Amino acid sequence: MGYGPLKKGEPGQLIIDPDASLSALQHEKSHFLEAQSKGFPSAAEAYQDWEGRIADEFKSYTIEIEEAKKLGLDNVAEQLQKNFKVEKQYIIDRYGPID
Ligand SMILES: [Zn+2]
């Protein structure tokens, strides 16, 4: 699952798992809408903006976490919070500043 930017100014690509949950689809939709609101940055621009990516992931995971909580799926909400932390760390390690 994922939304990936392609060419600047053009919509990117959504990779969808046929067994994905509705909240996972909402997560990816959120990435698409965020990219659209920024005029569809190129892949290079999108990946270099590591702080923007973390903010996007926070927004997308929050949608999923709220949905899980609404359904009383606290274990799912907890897992999603862990997933966000792992993804945030991945972005920092791979694209963040070098100290
Ligand atoms: Zn995401």
How would you describe this protein?
With 99 residues, this protein is mostly helical. The chain has one domain (2-95). The protein has four helices and two strands. Strands 1-2 form a two-stranded antiparallel sheet. Strand 1 (2-4) and strand 2 form a beta hairpin. Helix 1 (22-37) runs antiparallel to helix 3 and helix 3 runs antiparallel to helix 4 (74-95). It is globular. The model has no long low-confidence stretch (mean pLDDT 94). Bound molecules: zinc ion (ZN). Zinc ion (ZN) binds next to helix 1 and helix 3.
Question: What are the defining features of this structure?
Answer:
99 residues, mainly alpha, two-stranded antiparallel ribbon, 4 helices, binds zinc ion
List strands and helices in order, with pairings.
Elements: E1 2-4, E2 13-15, H1 22-37, H2 43-48, H3 50-70, H4 74-95
Antiparallel strand pairs: 1-2
Helix pairs in contact: 1-3, 3-4
The protein binds zinc ion (ZN).
Zinc ion binds next to helix 1 and helix 3.
